[in-house]
Amino acid sequence: MGSTKSHRYLLSPAAYNEAAMPSLKLARSSRFARRVGKFLFVSLILAFLLVALAPWQQSVTGSGNVIAYTPRERPQVIETPTEGRVVMWGENIYENAHVKKDQLIVKIQDIDEMYLVRLEGQEQAATDRLASMRQLLAASQLSAKSARDVVNSVNQQLKAYREVKSQIIASAEAAIESAKNKITASDRDLDQQTAALAQIKADYTRQETLYKERITSQLKFQETERKLKETEAKVGKARAYLAAAKNDLIEKERDRDAKAQKAQAEIDYAAAALSKANADAAKAESEVAKAQSELQKSTEDLLKLQTQVARQRSQEVRAPFDGFLTEISPNMGGKVLKKGEQLCVIVPDTSDRAVQIWLDGNDAPLVEPGRHVRLQFEGWPAVQFAGWP
Predict the structure, then answer these.
(1) Is residue 363 pLDDT above 80, yes or no?
(2) Exposed, middle or buried: residue 350 (CB in 10 Å: 0-12, 13-18, 19+)?
(3) Residue 378's pLDDT band (boundaries 50, 70, 90)?
């Protein structure tokens, strides 16, 4: 029972009492260390609060350079416009020299001094050839128009011949139909006269018998004889009319055939003329197409020569805008420059500049319009602190 109480006494707070255990004074932390610990503890809590509540932001780094904002104000390479040698540099042209727009930079001379003269001669010849081609095209177009007019005229003539043939045949058919009707009428009249003649002959025979028997008078017999002769004459006349009507029908049929053949011959002649006119028109159109092709070729040749002449005449290289010259080629007639070879670089004189910065692809989500950026130019400031603000 006494041992239990002693154990409880050792575990109570009195066990840490310096009066009960004087040796604790030797293991106790100093007052300064306790103050430092308290200060660090409070500072740690404040740091956590500051980090949690402060408006901090994440920063990324990149590298780049200053450029002109618009492409036309960026450095541009001045190239040789044509093949030749440098014969003269412009006044006050040196490295980093400031030049004005249209100021002479360099003058280049072709290695063949007569090349420009020959090109101008070829240009004049091409101009004359182009004028000749235009005249030829105009003449070909006029000829083609005349050929088309001939085609239209012959075509109208052919239509007229066909209409005339139709009218001729229709008129001839009407005349033939009239002749047939006349034959029919003459034939009917002949039948009537023949029937009358038969009756008169019978009456004549009866009157002749009666006259011989002294039954009728001589006067009546003579009257019957006269009627017989008249009727015979009428029959002969009717036969003559019938024969004439038949001959007239034959003549009109022949006339129809002759006129139809003549009209067909005229149609065939007009058709042949139309075919020839179409061939001439097609040939004229072909000449027009050929002249147009030659004119286009002459125009292209002239444009090429004009381009070459313009390039040869542009042997003076001038500044395209205000700026500074750099990387000037140290060439003064000792080297033949090729077309497109670099002469110098001109940096535009502009105040509208921009900064071009390259970032890592992983930092792309952190970049957005309106973000603040700190720039360091050639080591200033020497130290950059990332963070807020």
Answers:
(1) yes
(2) middle
(3) low
Chain segment 277-304, per-residue pLDDT in tens: 888 888 888 888 888 888 888 888 888 8
Cα 295 from Cα 137, distance rounded (Å): 8
- DSSP per-residue letters across 185-229: HHHHHHHHHHHHHHHHHHHHHHHHHHHHTTSS-HHHHHHHHHHHH
Determine the Cα–Cα distance for residues 88 and 90; give it in Å rounded to an integer.
7
Beta-ladder partners of 357: 64
Cα separation, 300 vs 323, whole angstroms: 38
Residue 231 to residue 198: CA distance in whole angstroms: 9
Are 43 and 49 spatial neighbours (Cβ–Cβ below 8 Å)?
A: no
How long a stretch of residues is the chain?
A: 389
Amino acid at 202: A
- pLDDT for 143 equals 86
Report which DSSP code applies to 71. Answer: G
Residues 6+ apart with CB under 8 A from 357: 62, 63, 64, 373
DSSP 8-state class, residue 93: -
Please tell me the predicted confidence (pLDDT) of residue 8: 45
d(CA 50, CA 52): 5
Predicted TM-score (pTM) above 0.90: no
Residues 6 or more apart in contact with residue 130 via CB below 8 angstroms: 295, 298, 299, 302
Strand partners, 88: 107
Predicted confidence at residue 99, as pLDDT, reads: 92
Query: Which carries the bigger pLDDT value, residue 217 or residue 89?
Result: 89
For 5-61, the DSSP string reads HHHHHHHSGGGG-TTT-TTHHHHSPPHHHHHHHHHHHHHHHHHHHHHHHS-------
Closest CA to 176 of 252, 258, 245, 255: 252
Task: Answer whether 308's CB lies under 8 Å from 120's CB.
Answer: no
Tell me the DSSP string of 296-330: HHHHHHHHHHHHHHHHHH--EEE-SSSEEEES---
Q: How far apart are CA 156 and CA 273, in angstroms?
A: 12
